[in-house]
Design goal:
- This protein is mostly helical.
- The chain has one domain: ACP-like (Non-ribosomal Peptide Synthetase Peptidyl Carrier Protein, Chain A).
- The chain has a two-stranded antiparallel ribbon with strand order 1-2.
- The longest helix has 15 residues.
- The relative contact order is 0.22.
- This is Acyl carrier protein.
Length: about 80
């Protein structure tokens, strides 16, 4: 399993998608979803956007269990390509 790294094009794109889903200008790896105002609708929207962007499969349960943006980025990096 890969670890979170701030650099990299895919990580930057994922961070932008997270910020967009929560309506904030930017996010960082250490940001907690609760602090961003996460709810089931925003997480579902985020899951859909990431699956479409990267053509991957992510389990909604895994997204709900991710506490930080960094944990989500690692999920994306390790996700199964459809």
């Amino acid at each position: 399993m890969s670890e979170f790294q701030e650099d990299g094009a895919r990580t930057a794109e994922t961070l932008r998608e997270v910020a967009k889903a929560f309506g904030v200008p930017e996010v960082k790896g250490e940001d907690h979803f609760a602090q961003l105002g996460a709810n089931s609708v925003s997480l579902l929207r985020l899951m859909s956007a990431l699956q479409e962007k990267y053509d991957i499969t992510i389990d909604l349960v895994d997204i709900f269990q991710a506490r930080t943006v960094a944990e989500l980025v690692v999920l994306v990096e390790n996700a199964t390509v459809r």
